[in-house]
Structure formats: C-alpha cells, structure tokens
Task: inverse folding
C-alpha cells in the first residue's frame, strides 16, 4: 500500500499557480517572504502518472513523495514564472503582509514554510517524470 505525499501541484486551472498568475502577468509577482524557503512541486500530469505507477508497481509501498525531483526556492519559482511569462518577478510579498492576509499560523505553516522533498522511491522504481524541471514544466502548463 502506498501513502502518497503530494507536493504543491502546479496547474493554471487551480491552486497556487492559478492564484499567482494574475499578479505575475501584471508584472507585480515575486517571491513569498524572504524567498529562501523550499517548495516541492509537481505537475498535475506527473501526479496522475505517479499514481498510475504506484498502482502497477508492487514493490512501491509506504510513504511516497509525489514531487518533482527538483524542488525550488520561492525565489526560484518566482524567477522561473517571470521568465516564462516574460515579466519581472522582483516584488516580494513580505512575510508581515502574508501573515496579515492569512493569519500568522496559517501563513507560517503554508506559504512561508519550507519543504524540500525528493521522490526517492519513485525514482528508484523507474518512474520517468514528464516534467522534472520547473521552467519546461511551466512552458508546458502555460502553453508557451
């Protein structure tokens, strides 16, 4: 039995990426907080592929990180998204503003938290990521 542990699923149709796009398209995007916290991400296509892989791979069991093999910092995500959209990505969202918007505990445990998960079990059992790198994944997701 597999216990899937999902990273931040990137899709322009919902979730974090969909919420970030408007600001970035206007040139007002940037890293969250200090920007050095890690974000373990995965494309929606790879979530589906990895779940299928888990179903057909009997040796895969226990906790499994469903994340791309290349986590990025908040600053790295902002820079990549700005590059793909052809917009600047230098305006950080200060931690105090995020805490005011979401509440201290929620902000600290979500958008300001750091997680650097690596999909060791997926890689060890031969899963081939469709989107292992962020910039090509964003190009594919955003049709650019």
Result:
């Amino acid at each position: 039995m597999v216990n899937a542990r999902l990273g931040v699923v990137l899709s322009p149709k919902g979730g974090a990426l969909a919420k970030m796009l408007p600001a970035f398209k206007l040139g007002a995007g940037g890293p969250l907080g200090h920007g050095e916290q890690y974000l373990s991400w995965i494309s929606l296509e790879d979530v589906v592929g990895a779940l299928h892989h888990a179903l057909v791979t009997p040796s895969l069991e226990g906790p499994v990180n469903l994340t791309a093999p290349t986590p990025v910092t908040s600053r790295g995500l902002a820079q990549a998204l700005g590059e793909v959209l052809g917009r600047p990505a230098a305006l950080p969202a200060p931690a105090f503003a995020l805490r005011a918007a979401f509440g201290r505990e929620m902000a600290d445990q979500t958008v300001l938290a750091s997680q650097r998960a690596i999909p060791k079990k997926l890689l060890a059992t031969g899963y081939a990521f469709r989107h292992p790198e962020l910039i090509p994944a964003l190009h594919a997701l955003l049709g650019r």
Residues 99 and 106 are 8 Å apart (CA to CA). Residues 44-56 form the longest helix (13 residues). Strands lie at 2-6, 8-10, 38-39, 41-43, 62-66, 72-73. The mean pLDDT is 93.
